């Protein structure tokens, strides 16, 4: 266990290195921070921190920089989440309140996160497997052609065409719409197949084929949308950090193109808490020089998806964590009110 004083020295090293991009020496630490001890004592503390693997000496520089292990301890013990200012919170709310649909919400969220953190922003679309049905609409386009519109509690809208074997009248359509909504509104998508399996038998024999076609289209929609979707923004921000990546940013860019990798980094959608993965904690080798800060968002108490940012390990963790958490909270409010 490190003493409180050595933890303070580590905190000062992280803050200075993130702020200046320069390796930190003992003289600079004593001048910039009120550590209450002599430079010699600070040098001794830095030697212990280096021996324990929390800081390292790059090349022949006299200064030290934090390691992944050092950043980990900083985040776990030393970094509070920095609250956003009132103007920042108002700016977030005003920007997101203008969204007109789910795609717009996700797009605005990506742009906002990238601007606030100056990192790469990643936003996962709400997962249908964690969504509930808000409404199912059925419209007649022709005597034997229908449109099914599925609306989720997160504002997601899916439209599909249904070809009936025989003409389906307005009265039958209204009856099917009412019975279908009575069974599925407010229920999880994963529960829908079981809830509607015996519905066709409750209709007249002549209508059952069309009812089955509608239900088949509904269930196919769920299967098609099982694949998770992401939106990424702010990739150009990485060019500001070229010297933070050992050789080149190419491996990072290649990893960002792999949505399966990013989904694993963000974590399971049901996990609503803040997660910070630093450097080599990221299993994908191309992202070993980056950190990922993510959190769940959703309407109500459960997360339906994740959002977060990817940037170099030399990151303003308190500020980034504060921005990610604040944006997730506002997005959740928008989904709840939509």
How would you characterize the overall build of this protein?
With 338 residues, the chain is of the alpha+beta class. It is built from 12 helices and 10 strands. The strands form 3 sheets. Strands 7-3-10-9-8 form a 5-stranded antiparallel beta sheet, sandwiched between helices. A 3-stranded antiparallel beta sheet has the order 4-5-6. It has a two-stranded antiparallel ribbon with strand order 1-2. The radius of gyration is 26 Å and the shape is elongated. The mean pLDDT is 86.
Compact overview of the structure:
The protein has helices at residues 4-20, 26-32, 39-51, 68-78, 86-97, 102-117, 170-184, 192-196, 205-224, 250-257, 259-266, 317-337, and strands at residues 55-56, 65-66, 120-124, 133-142, 145-152, 157-163, 230-233, 275-278, 290-297, 305-312.
Extended strand count: 10
Our Rg estimate from Cα atoms comes to 26 Å
Tell me the span between the first and last alpha carbons. 49 Å
Question: What is the residue-averaged pLDDT?
Answer: 86
Largest sheet: 5 strands, antiparallel
- Count of helical regions: 12
Uncertain runs with pLDDT below 50, 5 residues or more?
Answer: none
Instruction: Give the strand order, joined by hyphens, for the main sheet.
Output: 7-3-10-9-8
Strand content: 15-25%
**SSE string, helix = H, strand = E?**
HHHEEHHHEEEEHHHEHHEEEH
Global outline: elongated
Oligomeric nature of the chains: single chain
Portion in helices: 40-55%
**What structural category characterises the helix and strand content?**
alpha+beta
């Amino acid at each position: 266990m490190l003493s409180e004083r050595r933890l303070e020295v580590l905190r000062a090293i992280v803050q200075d290195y993130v702020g200046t991009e320069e390796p930190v020496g003992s003289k600079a630490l004593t001048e910039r921070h009120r550590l209450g001890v002599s430079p010699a004592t600070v040098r001794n503390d830095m030697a212990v921190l280096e021996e324990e693997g929390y800081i390292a000496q790059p090349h022949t520089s006299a200064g030290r920089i934090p390691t992944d292990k050092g950043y980990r301890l900083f985040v776990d013990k030393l970094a509070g989440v920095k609250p956003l200012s009132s103007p920042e919170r108002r700016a977030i709310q005003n920007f997101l309140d203008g969204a007109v649909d789910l795609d717009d919400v996700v797009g605005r969220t990506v742009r906002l996160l990238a601007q606030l953190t100056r990192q790469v922003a990643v936003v996962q679309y709400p997962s249908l497997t964690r969504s509930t049905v808000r409404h199912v609409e059925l419209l007649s386009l022709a005597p034997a052609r229908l449109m099914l519109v599925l609306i989720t509690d997160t504002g997601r809208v899916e439209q599909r065409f249904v070809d009936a074997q025989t003409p389906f009248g307005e009265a039958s359509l209204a009856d099917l719409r009412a019975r279908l909504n009575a069974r599925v509104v407010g229920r999880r998508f994963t529960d829908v197949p079981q809830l509607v399996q015996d519905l066709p038998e409750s209709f007249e024999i002549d209508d059952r084929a069309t009812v089955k076609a509608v239900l088949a289209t509904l269930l196919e929609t769920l299967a098609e949308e099982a694949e998770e979707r992401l939106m990424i923004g702010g990739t150009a921000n990485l060019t500001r950090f070229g010297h933070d990546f050992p050789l080149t940013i190419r491996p990072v860019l290649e990893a960002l193109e792999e949505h399966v990798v990013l989904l694993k980094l963000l974590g399971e959608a049901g996990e609503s808490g803040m997660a910070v993965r630093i450097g080599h904690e990221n299993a994908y080798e191309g992202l070993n020089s980056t950190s990922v800060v993510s959190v769940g968002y959703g309407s109500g108490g459960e997360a339906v998806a994740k959002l977060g940012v990817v940037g170099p390990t030399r990151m303003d963790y308190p500020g980034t964590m504060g921005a990610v958490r604040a944006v997730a909270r506002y997005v959740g409010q928008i989904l709840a009110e939509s």
